[in-house]
Structure formats: C-alpha cells, structure tokens
Write a structure and sequence with these properties.
Blueprint (H helix, E strand, L loop, with lengths): L9 E6 L5 H9 L17 E7 L2 E8 L6 H10 L7 H9 L6 H11 L3 E6 L7 H13 L3 E5 L9 H11 L2 E4 L7 H12 L6 H35 L2 E4 L6 H30 L22 H6 L7 H7 L8 H9 L3 E4 L3 H8 L3 H4 L1 H4 L7 E4 L6 H18 L28 H16 L2 H25 L1
The structure holds guanosine-5'-triphosphate and magnesium ion.
C-alpha cells in the first residue's frame, strides 16, 4: 500500500474532442460514472477520478476537455520567450478570460500542476496536421507522456502512420481499447507508464501491486458469496400442513413456487453483489440470445446446456416452473429426487414406492391415499442444482470481469458466446468434482463442523477458477 508521504501519481488524459478520453479514464479508474458521449465536446471541465483501494487513493486520472484551438496554442508556445517552467502557468493566465481558449486552458492546467500526460487518439481515422500540432504542444510542456491508440472501430489501416508519428513525440506508445481492455491490459498499460519517467517507476509499481491485491481480494469475496449462495440454495427446506381433504396438488405447486423464487432471488442477489465488487453500476447488458444466463434458472434448456444427464431430466422437469401446470405426475417424480418429501405418516409408504423404476412414472404414488400431515420441500438431494448454480455464477463473473468500465453500449463484453460452452464444471477434474460432492453431502447431513471445512475447500476452488477466468478474460 502507498505510504502516506508519497505523492499520489496523477495523469491527465488529453487529446482531440470525441476520441475516447473519458472512456479511457472510465476504464482506467474503473469508474462507470464518467460521462462518455458520442457528441464531441461532452467534457468541458477537468474532473479528477481517484482510484481508491481500501479507502486510500493510489493513483488519480484527470479527465479533460479536448483541444479547442491547438494551432493558436502552439503558435503562442513557440513564440514564448520566458522561463520554460512558467510557460503553462503564463499561458493560462493570459488566456483564462478568452472563451475561444477555454478548453485549452482547462486541459493544460493539470499539466501545469505536475500531472503526467496520457494522450488519446482514435487510431481508426487518418492522422491530420491538427494532431501534429497537439502532439507538439504536449512535447513543449515537457511533462512525461505516453500515447494511447484507442481504435473506436476495427479499422487498423492507419495504425502504422500513428505509430510512426508517435515515436517522434512520446516516451511510450500503447494500443489500448477503452471498450475492450481487460484487467491484464490495464496492468500492462500501467507498466508502460513506469517507463515514461524514472521517478515514476517505484510509485507506479506500488500502484500495480495495490491493484493486483485488490483484484485478488475481489475474487476471494466473490468466491465466498458464491459458496454462501450455493449453501443456502441447497440447504433450503420448507413445509406446510397438509391435512386430509386439503388440495395437495395446489399446496405442492405453492411450495414449489416459493422454493424456485427463493433460489432465483438468492442467485440474482449474489450476482449483483459480485457486480458491485467489480464496481459495475451501469451493467445492464443484453446478453447474447443464446446465453445461458438469459434463460430462467430452472428452464430445461439451462440444464441441458450445462450438461444435464438423461436420468436427471425428469427432475429438471419437476423443477421447472412450466412443470407445475403439468400436474401430479411430474411433480410426484420430483419427490423421488428430493424436491418434495412428504413427512409424517407417509415416509414409510413413500419410501417403499420410490424403489424401482416405477418411481419415474410416479404412477404408483398417484393413486395412493396417504394420510400425510405435512408436505416438505427441500433440501435438494440432486447435486445437479449445485453445478448449474456454480456454472451460471462463473459465467456471470466472466461477463463482469471482462467488461471494461468505459463501455456504454449494452452488448455483451465477450466476443465468444459463452452459451456455447457446456459450462465450466463439466470439464473439471475428478478431484475438483469431489470437492463439490463433499460440500453437497455435508449440507445434506446438516453437520456444521464438516460444513465449515468443505465450504472453505469449495471457496478456494472457486477462487482459483475465478483467477483463471480473469487471466484469460
Ligand atoms: N466502439 C467504441 N467506441 C468508443 C471507444 N472509445 C470511445 N468510444 C465512443 O466514442 C464516443 C466518444 O467517447 P468519449 O470518451 O466521450 O470521448 P472524449 O474524448 O472524452 O470526448 P469529449 O469529452 O467530447 O472531448 C462515445 O460515444 C464512446 O462510447 C472504443 O474504444 N470503441
Ligand atoms: Mg470527454
């Protein structure tokens, strides 16, 4: 962590209007409150975006307006005869009342107070003389500077021109797409910042370490949230009185509905908490149509996608909301897999009926007169629910982790459609699946000390999986 007496490094993000400066600031500071707009001239005043880790500011990025009158600014600087160190302050003093120079004064102000420069251009357009004037202004400021080529569209035919020109004016150059940059690309950018000025090396290294510890912390917290969500979903049980004469089908449907709503809400809450950990407040992404996260948690499609085995299909049908209307047949099959258990006088009879193949049809249960007092739903005895929730949580994390904060559209961050994958857990090793198994069995036994141990084990496994996801995001 940054010691108290070390000044916080600051970088002003400068460039022509509408090139993506604010978007770069937003991605680098992981702050999606930065105003980004397709209309040039959106940013009219400088604004500081500090990066806080554990309440301490480690680095700050300054969003600035685009150059307004670069030719006149450059001409003034070239004609300036005074002390170089006073040049920017003098420029601002002389032009501060001139509305035609307002933005130039504003963007040069942080440089005058010592900020480093990150110059942003949209590399998908050709280089113009205006850009050369802007680069020359920045060179004349004498501040340490790097250039970022932020390609707003896929066109890379102008890249070589930009790179050649940049070599004349900047200490460091990077391709950096503010809409697609991943965590590792941001770290790579910070590493390049070290090279622009030797004095910055130590302090930027400290920032990189703080970032990396913070991300590790977020992954650990996400893993803890996922494990808790799994435990609560799988441990759930509820019962209702079912005296003779009461409409049992309706009661089951109601218990079932309450159960699926409970798990669905738990899942949504856990996902939202993870989204907040990664500082995404705007994320209302339209996932690809095929995405499994689009689907209802209990839809048969979800379960098929994520590798459901044939013998679990009836169980899945029983779990799906649609099956509620189907009637007792499917619901009864559900009982056999542990969604519903009839407790009280019925256990012996039901237990006998569950043996053998007939249980799948449910036919023998259908006509049975059971003097049950209570109907119980949960705890779930089918481990598939664990894998489905786990896979969906990991897929959700992948979306969140790979989303750049500077992005403002609502399409998915991922180029590859994750819905095509069969989920993560299906490719896990036997050892990893055993961890899930132990966790699941401990929950069923309601054995608290054993649970604590396996919860730790599972959290650790999830944390490691999240690390791998972040690495490849
Ligand atoms: N597709 C795509 N669009 C981008 C990218 N970067 C920025 N944009 C879009 O370009 C527009 C301008 O982005 P801003 O970040 O507001 O640009 P700016 O340089 O701050 O603009 P001013 O404040 O007006 O000077 C916005 O509509 C952004 O969403 C990018 O990497 N890819
Ligand atoms: Mg802006």
């Amino acid at each position: 962590m940054m010691p108290n007496n070390v000044p916080v490094p600051e970088f002003a993000i400068v460039g022509h209007p509408n090139e993506g400066k604010s978007s770069v600031v937003s991605t680098l500071s992981e702050d999606d409150s930065v105003r980004v707009s397709p209309v040039p001239g959106e940013t009219t005043e400088c604004r500081i975006f500090p990066v806080l880790i554990d309440g301490r500011e480690v680095i700050r990025f300054i969003d600035t307006p685009g150059f307004q009158n670069p030719r006149k600014t450059l001409a003034w600087m070239r004609a300036y005869q005074g002390d170089d160190r006073e040049m920017l302050a003098e420029f601002i003093r002389i032009h501060s009342k001139d509305p035609a120079m307002h933005d130039d004064c504003a963007l040069l102000a942080p440089l005058s107070s010592g900020a480093g420069i990150i110059f942003v251009v949209d590399g998908s357009r050709p280089l113009r003389n205006m850009d050369r004037a802007e680069m020359e202004i920045l060179r004349l400021t004498g501040r340490p500077r790097m250039a970022i080529i932020n390609c707003k569209d896929e066109n890379s035919s102008f890249l070589a021109d930009w790179q050649n020109e940049f070599r004349k004016h900047f200490n460091s150059i990077r391709l950096f797409n503010s809409n697609r940059a991943t965590y590792s690309q941001r770290i790579a950018l910070l590493n390049s910042l070290k090279a622009i000025d030797q004095d910055l090396e130590g302090v930027i290294e400290t920032v990189i370490q703080a970032f990396s510890a913070d991300w590790e912390n977020r992954r650990r917290q996400s893993a803890t949230l996922i494990t808790a969500m799994l435990a609560e979903s799988l441990r759930y049980r509820a019962s209702a009185d079912c005296p003779p004469g009461k409409d049992e089908t309706q009661l089951k449907a109601q218990l079932h509905r309450e159960y699926t709503q409970f798990v669905t809400k738990l899942e949504r809450t856990a996902h939202q908490q993870i989204r907040r950990l990664f500082k995404h407040n705007l994320f209302k992404v339209q996932l690809p149509e095929q995405s499994i996260l689009q689907e209802d948690l209990f839809a048969a499609k979800t379960w098929q996608f994520l590798g459901l085995r044939d013998e679990d299909l009836i169980w899945a049908a029983a779990m799906s909301g649609a099956a509620v209307g189907v009637g007792l047949d499917v619901m009864t099959a559900g009982i056999s897999f542990g969604v519903f258990a009839a407790i009280g006088g019925v256990i012996g009879a039901a237990g006998a009926a569950f043996k053998g193949k007939e249980l799948l049809s449910g036919s023998r249960l259908l006509g049975m007169k059971l003097d049950k007092q209570q109907l119980q739903v949960g705890p779930v005895t089918n481990i598939q629910l664990l894998y489905i929730l786990l896979d969906r949580a990991l897929l959700y994390c992948r979306q969140i982790i790979s989303r750049a904060h500077g992005r403002r559209d609502s399409t998915s961050a991922l180029l590859v459609d994750e819905g095509e994958k069969q989920g993560y857990a299906s490719s896990w090793t036997t050892e990893e699946r055993k961890i899930c198994d132990r966790f699941f069995r401990a929950l069923q036994k309601e054995d608290a000390p054993a649970q604590e141990l396996v919860e730790k084990e599972l959290t650790e496994l999830i944390r490691e999986k999240l690390r791998k996801i972040a690495e490849h995001a």
